[in-house]
Design brief:
Blueprint lengths: L1 E7 L1 H4 L19 H6 L6 E7 L18 H11 L5 E5 L13 H17 L10 E6 L16 H6 L1 H11 L3 E4 L16 H19 L1
Parallel strand pairs: 1-2, 1-3, 3-4, 4-5
Helix pairs in contact: 3-4, 4-6
C-alpha cells in the first residue's frame, strides 16, 4: 500500500464557490479534485485528503484563528499518517488576503519552509523523505463576496507560479502550475467549480501516477 497526502486549504477541502461569505457548501468526494486524482492512481494507493478552509502557509490568522497556520499543524499531520510515499502541497491562496500584507516572494519563501519541514520530518518509507508535488494555486480574482478580503491579491497571486516553480526545483520536487489548467470561479474569485476540480484532478493525477510508477 502506498500513501499520498493532499495538504491544502478550502480548495482541497472541496468548498464550493460562495454566493455569500460564510457559505459552507462542500462538493462530494467524487466531485473534489482529490476524487478525480484518486481514480487515476494505482489500486494499491491510499489517498488522504487534508484540506482546511482558511489554511495559510505559516501565518496565524488574527481573525479566523491561529489553527489556520499550515506550518504549525504540519508536523503532527505528517507523523499521524506515516509512512508517506508522496505529499501534494497546494497552499498560498489564503496568504493573499489583505490582512497578511505579504508579497508573492514571501509566499514562495513560505512554501520553501513547508517543503523543508516535510523533507526533515522522517515520515517517508524507512524514515526517509516522501516525494513532493508542489501545486501552485491559480490566481485569485477580486470579485464577489470575497473581493474585499482579497484586495490586492490578484496581482500578487498572478506572480507566484514562477517563484514557486523555482522553490520546487531547488528541492528536487515536482511542480504543477494549476493556473495553466484551471481558473477560479467568478462567483467568489477564490474557489473552484466542479469543472475546474475535474480538470485539476486529472492534471495532478497524471503526474502523481507517474511519480508512483
Amino acid at each position: 500500500m502506498r500513501t499520498v497526502l493532499a495538504y491544502g486549504d478550502s480548495n482541497t477541502h472541496g468548498t464550493a464557490p460562495m454566493a455569500n461569505a460564510g457559505d459552507k457548501a462542500r462538493f462530494s468526494p467524487d466531485i473534489r479534485w482529490t476524487g478525480h486524482t484518486r481514480r487515476l492512481l494505482p489500486s494499491d494507493t491510499f489517498m488522504i485528503e487534508e484540506g482546511h478552509p482558511g489554511r495559510t502557509t505559516l501565518h496565524d490568522d488574527p481573525i479566523e484563528g491561529a489553527h489556520r497556520n499550515g506550518l504549525t499543524i504540519l508536523p503532527a499531520i505528517l507523523e499521524s499518517h506515516r509512512p508517506l510515499d508522496l505529499v501534494i502541497l497546494m497552499l498560498g491562496t489564503n496568504d493573499m488576503k489583505a490582512r497578511f500584507s505579504v508579497t508573492a516572494e514571501d509566499v514562495a519563501a513560505s512554501l520553501d519552509r513547508l517543503i523543508r519541514t516535510i523533507r526533515a520530518a522522517e515520515v517517508g518509507q524507512d524514515r526517509g523523505a516522501p516525494d513532493i508535488l508542489l501545486v501552485c494555486p491559480p490566481p485569485v480574482l477580486e470579485t464577489g463576496c470575497l473581493a474585499g478580503m482579497f484586495r490586492g491579491g490578484a496581482a500578487k497571486s498572478a506572480a507566484l507560479a514562477p517563484l514557486a516553480e523555482r522553490v520546487a526545483a531547488a528541492h528536487g520536487a515536482r511542480f504543477l502550475d494549476a493556473g495553466a489548467h484551471i481558473a477560479v470561479s467568478p462567483v467568489d474569485g477564490v474557489h473552484f467549480d466542479a469543472g475546474a476540480h475535474a480538470a485539476l484532478g486529472r492534471a495532478i493525477g497524471e503526474i502523481v501516477a507517474e511519480m508512483l510508477g
